[in-house]
Amino acid sequence: MATLPVWPPLPQRSQPAGAADHASRDSAADWIFVDPRSRDLLMEVEQVAPSDASILITGETGTGKELIARHIHGSSPRRAGPFVKVSCGAFSESLVDAELFGYENGAFAGAFGAQPGWFEQANGGTIFLDEINDLPLSVQNKLLRVLQEREVSRLGGRQSLPVDVRVLAAASTDLERLVSEKRFRKDLYYRLNVISLNVLTLRERPGDIVPLARYFIDTYSKRLGYRKLALTPDAEQKLIQAPWHGNVRELENVIHRTLLLCEQSEIDAASLRLPAAPSAAASATSSSAASIAQASPATDQYNVAASGSRPAPDEDMAALRRAILRLCESRGANLHQLVEDTLLREVFRVSHYSQSETARLLGISRNVVRARLIRLGEIGPPRKTACDAPHTDTPLDIETRKLQ
């Protein structure tokens, strides 16, 4: 049985995808996915990969949805064609149309020369639409037509261009809920959801935790030029018991950080750099922050579940005012930043670490959420987009970087 490629997939856009590339990734040891529930998912992937059906991959952020998409492509008859990943939330609404479907010379200010879109780049292969839930409604309508007619029209163009592309999509939020809220087209949802694959959280497949940790130790030891360290039994137990809200990506960061700071000959429980509990010195601030979080609409669903009743809005505001008063008495400076950072962190956690859901609840753009989470150290800086189709910077790329 073919094995899943190791986490994370690393080929860059300048490296064309093909059978040889797929074979090199599939030579990785299959013990990286050893949990029985992961094996069940692998068997399901192997069954659907040879088809040409659209697949919707769901799961929390950091669970490995792109890894599954790459394995589907590598196990399909399209393996010799390009694999193109598009992060739907990485572009503004004014740019995503041109990025996906291309544009003609003069289509908008700064459009110098014609540029093929990602669908044309993926012709003969697979396109992976990550965070499909971030796609604007206007673009959803055009995407539906592309899926139905198998042809694209560039922005500012009149001619339709045929494309032969398999579409894989991923979402970290409940698309059915977005459909009910009229924020995602129902017909597009059913067009994408021919086959549905759910990637479990790391805490739901504990058998993968220690093998993944060992893999990251090996990877980062080689990358840093360090001697490979072993995990002690108590360290393994601590890793298994950790909540891993950030899933595999969080585990990778923990191992990387541990190797950078560990000065021992092995990694024990004490040397693991897991997130620390709040210190006693910050207890007063944490208490006030908790009061703010409890008073906010984003976390109120948990209060309802615990008490069976929802506090009246007046009570919510009174609790919020009391929390702010305590902060004024205890801190007296930088209150705006403290409250804003606390609100962002709490909503991010309640949203199961989904940047899209956090942006929706706060009523701000995902780009703003991402920038603030990076500043707070909740997430790392974005990696390069791992696409295998050749690409050069265009005015759209430059404008996108300015927006980010």
TrEMBL record:
InterPro entries: AAA+_ATPase, AAA_lid_NorR, Homeodomain-like_sf, HTH_Fis, P-loop_NTPase, Sigma_54_int, Sigma_54_int_dom_ATP-bd_1, Sigma_54_int_dom_ATP-bd_2
Keyword annotations: ATP-binding, DNA-binding, Nucleotide-binding, Transcription, Transcription regulation
CDD domains, sorted: AAA
Pfam families assigned: AAA_lid_14, HTH_8, Sigma54_activat
Hydrolase listed as a keyword: no
Top-rank taxon: Bacteria
Keyword Transcription regulation attached: yes
Region called Disordered, residue ranges: 1-23, 383-404
Domain Sigma-54 factor interaction: 31-260
Start-end of Pro residues biased regions: 1-11
Name the UniProt record assigns to this protein: Sigma-54 factor interaction domain-containing protein
Provenance organism: Pandoraea vervacti
Top-level taxonomy: Bacteria, Pseudomonadati, Pseudomonadota, Betaproteobacteria, Burkholderiales
